[in-house]
Amino acid sequence: MYTEMRIPRLRAALWTSTRGDSASVADGAKHNCEAQEEWNVGNNEVLTSSQIFDAGIEDWRQLAGPIRARFPTDDFTQGLVFVNAIGEAAQKANHSPDIALTSTGVTVTLSSHGVGGVIDDDIALARRISELAAEAGLAADTASLMQAEFALDTGSGDRAASFYAALLGSEPAGVHSGGDLVDPTGQMNSLLWWQEPRENSRFPLPESAVPQSWHLDAWVSHDEAENRIAAALAAGGQLVSDKAAPSYWVLEDPDGNRACICAPMVH
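Above: the chain's sequence. Below: its structure in token form.
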């Protein structure tokens, strides 16, 4: 049976794993992550969600750990020019952002891999990237930012981790029971984790009418959560619990399958 959603947490393992360098699509943007990690370790403290919010980087939002911004573009060429500019700025900052370039926009994700979180260096580069976007006439689209995670409700996370790691060609990150799974190639941005059944939880849920082993966590920015909930309810969903808000809300689809909308905790 379906068990209660866990409280969303930041996962350093997702960002300390060896991932593909998406920025390498831009000429000169490829960077040695090991050198960047050595440069950062011990010199910076990981910022809290409230500290990131107070930094006032309006184009950027924190989702499940890192900060992210998306800049819509008119076409692929405009996006490529922007990515090259980001690459030059990243090299000067001795940083290695994750960059996704499509025909409709550029998405940039920032986190310091060596310390497992967002630090002052990430905030500084975020500001510089926003300056480059303004110079290129690009405006950020914060409402569309989202990160999906998938959870398997099981008391046998160790066994499940080995199986799904083999199935997906992934690797356990070793944070949660059995180890969260991350994609070392960077192709799959979502995270797979295991939730053990818990009793006497702070946020108990009513019994689900539908047997369910998997559920989806949709991470959105703190200022987009209510809009996303309203849209889901208008599309036929129901609110099961908001006891853990503003950390997460539990909803059901029209057939009774449950999912969470999650947001980082700020002031």
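The first strand starts at residue 61 and ends at 62.
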